[in-house]
Amino acid sequence: MKKSLLYVFLVLLLSSCSLSYKFNGASIDYNLTKTILISDFPNQAPLVYPPLEQRFNEELKDLFTRSTRLQFVRQNADIEMEGEIVGYELTPLAVQEDSFASETRLTLTIRMRYRNNKVEGQDKEETISAYRNFPADRMLTDVQDQLINELIKEIVDQIFNSTMSNW
């Protein structure tokens, strides 16, 4: 008898509880915030890699499309995001005894401005960077596409977490 009462109690307890997990990290009140405007981020870096601007803008918009229910609009959005690509640079690392670098660092830097027109105090402006090292005996042209994809993904994830997560 006690086991059956305990079982019924557990079933009622578990059925009355609801857990909600969001695996994308977004914490958006969709009753309040419904639209988003993400302006293209122009490439203003001194060193220019032509496909970078288009790849970055597409990946940023794709992540917000996949991870939120926000509708993209061209004006009067609840959330607005804009910025620019400000850095794309190579830096020699780990100089050896023969004065040549054994590694090279590729760094991508984005300046982002975020404005929430529905919730005060959430506006922000950030500069976000990511880098990858590659052997100096490899040509940038050989590794550039792979590295750019990795850097863009990392920065886009950082932008998403910075703007959409309320941790």
Short description:
With 167 residues, this protein is of the alpha/beta class.
Structure, explained:
The chain is α/β, with parallel strands linked by helices. Helix content is 34%, strand content 31%. It has a single domain, classed as Lipoprotein like domain (Double Stranded RNA Binding Domain, 2-Layer Sandwich), CATH 3.30.160. The protein has helices spanning 2-16, 51-67, 140-164, and strands at residues 35-38, 71-72, 79-95, 101-116, 124-135. The chain has a five-stranded mixed sheet with strand order 2-1-3-4-5, covered by helices on one side. Strand 4 and strand 5 form a beta hairpin. Helix 2 (51-67) packs parallel to helix 3 (140-164).
